[in-house]
Write a structure and sequence with these properties.
- The chain is mainly α and 74 residues long.
- It has 3 helices and no strands.
- The protein starts with a helix and ends with a helix.
Length: 74
């Protein structure tokens, strides 16, 4: 994960993710088996978050283009 993505996160979200990571690490320490469902769920959550970030970025760029076009039309 890049530094830019880490810096853009709200502190609360980062804290919650750290808690989740700690919980999973504790589970893994107690048993040496890795649950594939937990790993798949993490991957799905990460992809969903990336899609959301991409959508926000795209809408921001689109808004800037529309505003610029509107201002330039006058």
């Amino acid at each position: 994960m890049s530094t830019e993505q880490i810096l853009r996160r709200p502190a609360k979200e980062t804290f919650l993710e750290e808690q989740e990571v700690q919980e999973v690490q504790e589970e893994q320490r107690s048993s040496q088996k890795v649950d594939i469902n937990i790993l798949l769920e993490k991957v799905r959550a990460e992809k969903k978050k990336e899609k959301k970030e991409n959508l926000i970025f795209l809408s921001l760029i689109s808004s800037v283009i529309l505003i610029t076009a509107f201002i330039a039309s006058f």
